[in-house]
Amino acid sequence: MAKLSGKIALVTGGNKGIGRGIALGFAAEGASLVLVARGQADLDRTAADIRALGADVLTLPADVTDEKQVDVVFAQTIAHFGRLDILVNNAGAFDGGPLDELSVEAWDKVMALNLRAPFLCTRSAFRIMKKQGGGRIINIGSISAQRVRLNSGPYSTSKHGLWGLTQVTALEGREFGIACGCLHPGNTMVERRQTTGKTEDDEPMMSVAELAQAAVCMATLPPHVNMLEAIVLPIGQMYVGRG
Fold first, then answer.
1. Separate counts of helices (H) and strands (E) for the chain
2. Cα dist from 123 to 30, 95, 98, whole Å
3. Cα separation of 210 and 27, whole Å?
4. 38 C-beta neighbours (distance < 10 Å), count
5. pLDDT tens digits for 175-207?
6. CB atoms within 10 A of CB 75
7. pTM over 0.90
8. What is the 3-state secondary structure (H, E, C) of 2-55?
């Protein structure tokens, strides 16, 4: 039997990149998926690939920084599947620049998607998981939560904050059987990297599917076991001692 057979997993930003890879990985292990994102065309494409694996999938276009839309997403998830076993807070944004040149708009955009959205989704998931007797939440952080780079103020700060939210969630969820862990990816070859041509994109990379294996590992642990934190990166990437 597949390791996630009968499980319902909701993935934000599940239409492309890391979210898409995780959704496909979960589907291959028998999970049913709820994909939440703003890009309908990519949602439809990923949903078709999931159905090709024999898995059920519900697509819900939404802005997960909006409280009312998040409430609707989780209500529709329960209406369709009746429960929620796994939440993956993956939707995110990157912006940056020198701190003295950074706009408030850029800062707020990153904070909204990288911190406000995981909080809103976690709150909704908690309300469901408490009633059903448990569940698992996986936050997609970044190695920038621990090793920052120049000109990454909003992104690095938000990922530090997400690690804090992870710990609070794990602590408050403990007595209710709710596990929460944070997966920190290193360089991953997502669609954005294939088109930017930035110098940093010439660094060692791992594929989305390779990273997704770690998320599947976290999701398939026994319910009484939690992987609180995982750092996954190409062995050739500068991390310890990186500048």
1. 8, 7
2. 26, 26, 33
3. 15
4. 14
5. 999 999 999 999 999 865 445 555 456 788 999
6. 12
7. yes
8. CCCCCCEEEEECCCCHHHHHHHHHHHHCCCEEEEEECCHHHHHHHHHHHHHCCC
- Which tokens hold the place of 108? 């707020």
Q: Does 155 participate in catalysis according to the annotation?
A: yes
* Alpha-carbon span 30 to 8, nearest angstrom: 9
Class of domain 8-232: alpha beta
Burial of 49 (0-12, 13-18, 19+ CB in 10 A): middle
Tokens of 162: 């997400």
Catalytic site residue from 85, 155, 188, 218: 155
Domain spans, the chain: 8-232
Residue 1, exposed/middle/buried by CB under 10 A (0-12, 13-18, 19+)? exposed
Using one digit for the tens of pLDDT, what is the confidence trace for 34-45? 999 998 999 999
Give the angle 42-45-46 at the CA atoms, nearest 5°. 85
